[in-house]
């Protein structure tokens, strides 16, 4: 089976991650779920259920030196929802968090990677956000932002997060084995 690393960060759509895992599995992916520490705290009561659902440990921390890899290698990585903070950390190479470390290395390992931000229209006025999106695209990351991807909402207004676009983009890059 083909392996998708699904990495969620601390924006509200991460609370829907179980449904997205099921949707990815229905498309044929073996899903390994990674979370930032903030997202893991939000999902803490659901973590046992998410581990049972994926059949893999949910990871939010680096392993200890010498500890074995607990996941199969990734065929493709999806970072969604991706916060302003995580997009900027990734672009700048600030790898204090496990999931950011993995996707920073993925660029050099040529592992196809897709990111779909979740940011409001106030965050995107900070110039670093656009510099980060441009930099990630120049590194080969597919960033689903703007027309055809995530479009920012006014602060405080929730809109459905376009998970389907993210899974379609992943499927267009790498198809799960039948
Ligand atoms: C209820 C709530 C909703 C949030 N929604 C967003 C969001 O949609 N986008 C965003 O960039 N940050 C959002 N934040 C702020 C992030 O959670 C915060 O910047 C956090 O440090 C991100 O950490 P992470 O990138 O390591 O997950 C939200 C915070 C809270 C408390």
What are its keywords?
single chain, alpha/beta, Rossmann fold, five-stranded parallel β-sheet, 5 strands, about 40% helix, binds flavin mononucleotide
Topology of helices and strands:
Layout: E1 2-8, H1 17-26, E2 29-35, H2 37-42, H3 47-54, E3 76-82, H4 84-92, H5 98-109, E4 113-117, H6 127-138, E5 142-143, H7 163-173
Parallel strand pairs: 1-2, 1-3, 3-4, 4-5
Helix pairs in contact: 4-5, 4-6
Instruction: Note the run of SSEs as H and E.
Output: EHEHHEHHEHEH
Number of DSSP-assigned strands: 5
Main pleated sheet? 5 strands, parallel
Low-confidence stretches: none
Number of helices: 7
State Rg. Answer: 15 Å
By helix and strand content, what is the structural category?
alpha/beta
- The N- to C-terminal Cα distance equals 8 Å
- Percent range for β-strand residues: 15-25%
Give the CATH superfamily.
Flavin prenyltransferase-like
Which CATH top level class fits? Alpha Beta
Query: Can you tell me the number of structural domains?
Result: 1
Question: Order of strands across the widest beta sheet?
Answer: 2-1-3-4-5
On the 0 to 100 scale, the average pLDDT is: 96
Shape call:
globular
Q: Bound small molecules, which ones?
A: flavin mononucleotide
The CATH architecture category equals 3-Layer(aba) Sandwich
CATH topology: Rossmann fold
Helix content: 25-40%
Structure report:
With 178 residues, this protein is α/β, with parallel strands linked by helices. The protein has one domain: Flavin prenyltransferase-like (Rossmann fold, 3-Layer(aba) Sandwich). The protein contains seven helices and five strands. It has helices at residues 17-26, 37-42, 47-54, 84-92, 98-109, 127-138, 163-173, and strands spanning 2-8, 29-35, 76-82, 113-117, 142-143. Strands 2-1-3-4-5 form a five-stranded parallel β-sheet, sandwiched between helices. Strand 4, helix 6 and strand 5 form a beta-alpha-beta unit. The longest helix is centred in the middle third of the chain and has 12 residues, at 98-109. The chain is globular, with a radius of gyration of 15 Å. It starts with a strand and ends in a 5-residue tail after the last helix. Bound molecules: flavin mononucleotide.
